[in-house]
Q: What sequence folds into this?
């Protein structure tokens, strides 16, 4: 099993992390010896095989972390403002603001106050998938749940939303 070793002066313990596409990163305390590293990886072999198989099904995005977030936040803001304006021309919903976030688990959300929140990573998805997320969150302005009427609202503008939703599951917001 291939993995990249990252030595850290702050790490107290060894940690394995498997990223989308099956990329394995092993973070170790700076002074860790090769023998200890090899023993740790050997003890984790079964879990590691399982995790790599699981993460191979996901597509990696070309960005992750705070540095990329700061670099692309304004591009994402422009892109998402434009996409919200485009889709909201059909719906004409009112909302308070659009926020661009550095989320690791969600693509977007809609608050009870009518704020739309989006991951900056949407900038790096295929446009039709980013549009699905935008319409999904806009639809929450009218239906703050996942009821039949909510899905019908999405289907008004994106009839193939189910296929897009399935494809979106192959991506992860960031690692």
A:
């Amino acid at each position: 099993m291939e993995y990249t070793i990252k030595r850290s002066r702050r790490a107290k313990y060894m940690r394995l992390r498997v990223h989308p596409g099956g990329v394995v990163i092993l973070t170790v305390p700076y002074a860790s010896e090769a023998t200890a590293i090899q023993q740790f990886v050997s003890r984790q072999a079964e879990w590691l095989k399982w995790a790599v198989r699981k993460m191979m099904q996901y597509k990696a995005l070309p960005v992750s972390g705070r540095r990329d977030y700061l670099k692309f936040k304004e591009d994402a803001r422009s892109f998402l403002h434009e996409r919200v304006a485009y889709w909201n021309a059909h719906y004409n919903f009112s909302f308070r603001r659009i926020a661009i976030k550095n989320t690791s688990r969600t693509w977007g959300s809609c608050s009870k106050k009518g704020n739309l929140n989006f991951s900056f990573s949407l900038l790096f998805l295929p446009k039709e998938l980013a549009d699905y997320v935008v319409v999904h969150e806009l639809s929450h302005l009218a239906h703050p749940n996942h009821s039949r009427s909510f899905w019908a609202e999405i289907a008004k503008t994106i009839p193939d939303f189910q296929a897009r939703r399935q494809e979106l599951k192959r991506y992860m917001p960031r690692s």
User: Anything to note?
Assistant: The chain has six helices and six strands.
